[in-house]
UniProtKB/TrEMBL annotation:
Pfam families (alphabetical): TctC
Superkingdom as given in the UniProt entry: Bacteria
Organism: Comamonas kerstersii
Cited CDD domains: PBP2_Bug27
Family note: Belongs to the UPF0065 (bug) family.
Keyword terms of this UniProt record: Signal
Protein name, per record: ABC transporter substrate-binding protein
Leader sequence residues: 1-25
Native organism taxonomy: Bacteria, Pseudomonadati, Pseudomonadota, Betaproteobacteria, Burkholderiales
Length: 326
């Protein structure tokens, strides 16, 4: 019995000291680290931690590390500068890898060259939402009602966002430009303060992320009126797209997994296989569904091509919005 216990303990120690199965070098030791370039508790962080829990029996200990700041730039820079040995991966999102390259004049990372795509994880529609109490008072039940209301009150309305250059800000500026409405933008330090401002009637509407707004929609505090995807969303099929009024209008939220550039292709493929399997597991899909998120997976090549297309698309959107961060 003692010999068996010794052998088990020795095997466990060797398992810790040896390179993990997905790592590229025999000198690579330690747990898998996933860097999230945003604060803890948000929808990205929660979704990543659910994946980590699902994968720990397969990959061993997984550490989720939050590195917020500079619009996600601090965390993305940490991913880009990490050793390309398969032990550090991170989250690339629409803001960090499609919007920031055109928004920030001095970005500390290269969104095109510094990362090896692994897989997309999700895509979530943004919504045009109002305070439900105000919508009821103004007789607004549909997107058409809102458009009529906005035209009657052009020059009097304001919309909130999570900050200059955020998806909500860009959506608002394109909306203003294409409709010709005079609406004031009020930036806040993050999506949560922006939503709080809407709930307290400090602003008239926002373009919010469905995952973020879902709880207050269910509670009857927010009134969703339209989605910002090109077509109706499976998550809220009753809502029309803003594209019905503004052809081609599409600003939504996505994120996925990347590794530092130079991570060997076989390591990327192994991580892709494990994360895609986890994303399609019943437990994770239920969590994502409860958070009002669509699960989306891809090959590394597909995710890289998708991000390249998104960067090209947002170059024009950021220019139109006039947003800039020094």
């Amino acid at each position: 019995m003692q010999r068996r216990q010794f052998m088990t303990t020795a095997a466990a120690v060797c398992g810790v000291l040896a390179a993990p199965q997905w790592a590229s070098a025999q000198t690579a030791k330690g747990p898998l680290r996933i860097i999230v370039p945003y604060t803890a508790g948000g929808s990205i962080d929660v979704s990543v931690r659910r994946i980590a829990e699902r994968l720990e029996p397969v990959l061993g200990t997984i550490l989720v590390e939050n590195r917020p700041g500079a619009g996600g730039g601090i965390g993305m820079n940490a991913i880009a500068r990490a050793p390309a040995d398969g032990l550090t991966v991170g989250i690339a999102a629409v803001a960090t890898n499609a919007i920031n390259p055109w928004l920030f004049k001095n970005l500390p990372y290269d969104a095109e060259k510094d990362f090896a795509p692994i897989t997309q994880m999700t895509r979530i529609p943004n919504l045009l939402v109002m305070n439900a109490e105000v919508a009821k008072r103004e007789g607004i039940e549909t997107f058409d009602d809102f458009m009529a209301y906005a035209k009657r009150n052009s020059g009097k309305l304001s919309y909130g966002s999570g900050g200059n250059g955020s998806a909500g800000h860009l959506a608002g500026e394109i909306f203003k430009r294409e409709t010709g409405l005079d609406i004031v933008h009020v930036p806040y330090n993050g999506g949560a303060p922006s939503q709080l401002a809407l709930l307290s009637q400090q602003v008239d509407f926002t373009f919010d992320n469905l995952s973020s707004a879902a709880a207050n929609i269910r509670a009857g505090k927010l009134k969703p009126l339209a989605v910002t995807t090109l077509e109706r969303s499976q998550l809220l099929p009753e809502l029309p797209p803003v594209a019905d009024v503004i052809p081609g209008f599409a600003i939504d939220t996505w994120w996925g997994l990347v590794a530092p550039a130079g991570t060997p292709a076989d390591v990327v493929q192994t991580l892709n296989k494990h994360f895609v399997q986890a994303l399609h597991s019943p437990e994770v899909m239920k969590t994502y569904g409860d958070m009002m998120m669509d699960t989306v997976t891809s090959t590394p090549q597909e995710f890289g091509e998708f991000m390249a297309k998104e960067r090209a698309r947002y170059e024009q959107i950021v220019k139109i919005s006039g947003a800039s961060v020094d």
